[in-house]
Design goal:
By secondary structure, this protein is of the alpha+beta class. 18% of the residues lie in helices and 31% in strands. Strands 1, 8, 9, 10, 11, 13, 14 and 17 form an eight-stranded antiparallel sheet that branches.
Amino acid sequence: MSVDKPTSSTQATVTVLDVLEPRMFDRCPICGDPATSDEHVPAQSLHGHVMTRTCEPCNNGLGSRVEPALLDWYDNAISLSKLSGGSVPGQRHAGRLLLRYLPDGEYVLLQDGPYDPAIAEILRSGEVDLKGALPNDDHVRLALLKNAYLAACLTFGIWEGEYADEIRADLKAARDAGSRQEIPRSRLARGLTFFRLCGPPPVNAPAVAVARADDPAGPIPGVVLAGRIFVSWTSDLGATASAAADDRLATPLVVGPAVTGPLLRWTPPEASRLTASDSKAADGADSGRPSCPPRASAMGRRRPRHKYSVSATHGSSLTSPVGLVTSDGPLYRNAAQRQVGTDDRRRSRSVAPW
């Protein structure tokens, strides 16, 4: 089964089947060492809650090496950004930049966090050069693999088997890598299907919920993280064929005229967005139970379902002209249509359950 490209207006419906409760283990579900550290699932920055316990190396190592990329992907963010231009010498720190859309479909960049005061003068020059880093696709997928695996452990206990062993080995390799640049790729992470739930998340969304994404070719079992991200419990084992994407960004920008007051969106106006929030669906006779991790028949009691209509933003990256805003200043449109990044993310085909 396939998921349309992020630019498609095709919608996917995600149905929540069971809300997961915290479950503590004596040993770390990732490496087997004593579990000594409270683990948020998903990360606290994504509004996750303490759902289990892992060891400190797994919690802190993966939390600092791969999970920041997941937050940047969810936020549509450019990190480590620098701007140069005008009469200001050198490159200046521009903070974290968030990609957003105007109602007419134009893209803007919103500054998030501290930045060099000289950025205002650089913007006034009208033409600037931007350098930064896009979310690393492999790190995003490893963070999703970690969260999906821990959700499986919450549901079924620390499970064993070929795929479980491979997941743990991949996560430990990421944890123990000498640097972020040395983190190895994971074939199971490469094959994940995942969506960003565009727009405001449902009110009081659970931290982790077992769910099903409906696709014309068949259901995709997985979990919803904090009402914001769906990630599959299946992997396409052929997805490793794609080359590693370059997450470095360097592009000239033209700062257009200032505008005020528009609603900033996460998705283009023509793309599908969240259209139903926390609406209860009829409890039909279909089983709707994931059949991927071992002992899937042990799902337990079914709770009321919830449906979310979401954009098919599978593995999306930045592919847009941009403008700039300061955190406390006017909004600048981009006057030129310039490409910021490339989207080489593959369509995912769910062929192998874990």
